[in-house]
Amino acid sequence: MTQGTTQGATAYTTSGTTSGAAQAAIGDSEFDRDTAVVRRAPGVYDTELSAGWTIINAVNGGYLLAVLGRALADALPHPDPFTVSAHYLTASQPGPAVIRTDTVRAGRTLSTGQASLFQYAEDGSEVERIRVIASYGDLGALPDDVRTSAEPPAIPPIDQCFGPQDAPEATPVQGSTAIADRLWLKLDPDTLGWALGAPSGKGEMRSWFGLADGRDADPLSLLLAVDALPPTAFDLGLSGWVPTVELTVHVRCRPAPGPLRVAIRTRNLAGGFLEEDAEVWDSADRLVAQSRQLARTVLAR
Amino acid sequence: MTQGTTQGATAYTTSGTTSGAAQAAIGDSEFDRDTAVVRRAPGVYDTELSAGWTIINAVNGGYLLAVLGRALADALPHPDPFTVSAHYLTASQPGPAVIRTDTVRAGRTLSTGQASLFQYAEDGSEVERIRVIASYGDLGALPDDVRTSAEPPAIPPIDQCFGPQDAPEATPVQGSTAIADRLWLKLDPDTLGWALGAPSGKGEMRSWFGLADGRDADPLSLLLAVDALPPTAFDLGLSGWVPTVELTVHVRCRPAPGPLRVAIRTRNLAGGFLEEDAEVWDSADRLVAQSRQLARTVLAR
Q: What percent of chain B has pLDDT over 90?
């Protein structure tokens, strides 16, 4: 969950290539540094949740999933997340955290692991933030066959889309907008009516997506991409929090270099809960990730 | 995963009401007896996986999820599954099993728990079959607001749909077809081409759904309903196994009495993996459950 109403960086230009400064490489970028984990003991990792991926007073759920995903990539015998299911328990805060992993099963094609992220209460005790079960494999080892009826989302060209930096004036926001500086978003104007007080009511959000420092996408950053657009609830005319209860991501293909397209949709808001379905497409027109989350609507105070 | 090519029972008639025999009640039906769990110790439950919910040589994954769901409903302070994420580790067999649960967090609106189902190896050691994280709540406590753009699937009336018992002659099947006797399925003929050797290639499956003994749906039986139709892979022209890697179900509303409609769709088959999205609608035209699974295609031998 995040929103994009403030100034953002622009490593990608409207043509989709990076601007002036050298492009950050996978493994040596802000995203990599902020999701780094240090093995304390077998299966146990220390990390520092960065304030750079916060919005209002929350740490972005996709960023948190990428941190957990990196720990599991180290702990499990397979390198790539194929399916990751996360249940969000309590609100994470920037600062130190520990991830405890458990290898559930190591198979030939897939291995399955569990991971929990904990932070520390004032008395030093551990408070669990997120619990994850994930199955990992090797995307590079999959056969090339594709039989898909899925089509890329209809997003206008980048120069006809709008990012936070295109807003006529920055809307004053209560709290952090740090994540906006780390993402490169160019939103489909058809899904931006809410920013002008005229939400479409359709529950859709579509955007070009990249990291502000130009780092290309990889399977780990896809875990961020599925949960980094403004919430579809805005397009439904709701304001306030939309905290994630559960988020499952399927990574289907290793993404090609270049900007991604992310489309999110909510069909059913009922009883204060809604689903948010995301799909992520790469520059080679391949469906690289799918996700669904169950979220709660919490009215603005 | 299942298939429906053999004789099935018909507690529902084509008009959607139960036939001759008395309708089984929730709590006193085949489904309830076969998903019963007995508390051995706090959070630990014994159960007996029934051979009645097998297809070929596999125990149906939705049935297994319902067994786990019943254990968690007892272990957690809230009664209803809201979101259940299951990773399938090894193939379950009919016979004794033990479910070990852990209450992760008990909140006001939601509580989160974990559960694993184990069976016994020849030396008596426990082999884990499925691991689940789930968040439970109280569907009856949700407000009535609904803002949905979702529409019920276009399934023809029941008397224009076809179940296993309508097949001109039973296709010989290698292995168990027991589950077909416990379900009441009436499939949309547009998604039945595969049974006549002419799959549509669309990756869709739609059916009226009920339990053969006429028991009405409840949140637990929805966990079965999302994974009880023939696999969409058949409609894509594939044969063989489509074992589930991961299955997440969102229960959105308590279902009204009467037959359900289940629609399943696969958009992307790539690298030997496919997603299967299901939605379940009740007789009051409400979207009562959504699910997505990641499955593998395993060629027929």
A: 81
- The verdict on a CB contact (< 8 Å) between A135 and B87 is yes
Chain A contact for B131, CB < 8 A? Answer: yes
Please name which of A246, A256, A247 lies closest in space to residue A288, comparing C-alpha atoms.
A256
How much is the average pLDDT of A268-295?
A: 97
| Predicted complex ipTM | 0.92
pLDDT digits (tens, 9 = 90+) for A27-46: 999 999 999 999 999 999 99
Question: Are A258 and A216 a contacting pair, CB within 8 Å?
Answer: yes
**Domains detected in chain B:** 30-139+160-168+175-296 (2.40.160.210)
Q: Supply B8's token pair.
A: 């099935």
The answer, for A202 touching chain B at a CB cutoff of 8 Å, is: yes
Cα of B168 to nearest chain A Cα, Å: 32
Measured CA to CA, the distance from residue B144 to residue B136 in angstroms comes to: 18
In terms of phi and psi (left: phi > 0; alpha: psi -120 to 50; beta: otherwise), the region of A227 is: alpha
CB B103 within 8 A of CB A80: no
How far is B38 from B143, CA to CA, in rounded Å? Answer: 33
Burial class (CB in 10 A: 0-12, 13-18, 19+), B168: exposed
Residues of B within 8 A of A256 (CB-CB) are: none
Could you tell me if A183 and A224 are in contact, meaning their C-beta atoms sit under 8 angstroms apart? no
> Residue B36, Cβ neighbours under 10 Å: how many?
14
Element (H, E) at B1: none
* 3-state SS, residue A224: helix
Q: Which residue has the higher pLDDT, A4 or A76?
A: A76
d(CA A170, CA A165) in angstroms, rounded, equals 8
Question: Which residues from B are below 8 Å from A109, CB to CB?
Answer: 296
A128 touches chain B (CB under 8 A): yes
B204 Cβ partners below 8 Å, 6+ apart? B190, B191, B232, B235, B263, B264, B265, B266
Q: pLDDT for B256-282, tens place per residue?
A: 999 999 999 999 999 999 999 999 999
Half-sphere CA count of A243, side-chain side, radius 13 A: 17
For residue A138, the chain B residue with the least C-alpha distance is B271
Query: How is residue A298 annotated by DSSP?
Result: B
User: Nearest CA of chain A to the CA of B213: how many Å?
Assistant: 30
Q: Phi and psi at residue A65, in whole multiples of 5°? A: -65, -35
Note whether B148 contacts A270, CB cutoff 8 Å: yes
Contacts of B150 in chain A (CB under 8 A): 267-268
| CB < 8 Å to A82, chain B | 245, 273, 294
If pLDDT is split at 50, 70 and 90, which confidence band does B239 have? confident
Element containing residue B189 per DSSP (H, E): none
Asked if A110 has any chain B CB less than 8 Å from its own CB, the reply is yes
Evaluate whether B17 touches B257 at the Cβ level (below 8 Å). Answer: no
* B282 vs B261: CA distance, rounded Å: 6
Contact indicator for B59, B94 with CB cutoff of 8 Å: yes
Segment B81-94 shows an average pLDDT of: 97
